[in-house]
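Researcher: Here's the sequence for the chain we discussed earlier.
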Amino acid sequence: MLDRTDTKFSHVKPGDTDYVSGGLRDFFLYRDLGVAEATNGKVIAHLVKANMAPEAGTGWHRHEAEFQIVIMVNGWARFMYEDQVTLVQAGDVVHQRPGIRHYLFDYSPDMEYLEIVSPADFKSIDVEPVCEVPPPTPWA
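Model: Thanks. This is the structure I predict for it:
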């Protein structure tokens, strides 16, 4: 029999939650999808979208997380994963292995991605730069 004591059913429709500031990055807006509450903090799922043009980006960091994927829904973003420039475009899926050092440094004005991370209260830890980062593309 399926154990339902640790999680509950959740169904969030587009109008149920708004995009809000106050998330991990002030230049993004975040829309909670109810998964953290439904899983008692085991997993978080949120939509993240551009709110301001890229200036300094996220800086070099890593996450203390067991699992993390990014699914690009709209637009594009350029990341440094270790010393590799990676263009992530709408439709792409990225699995970020635990502890990978990365830097989101550029994105389009219409960038929006779904991020799923476990645990929900994962930490972002600043790290020493891995390499030089290209400049962002100015928004028109």
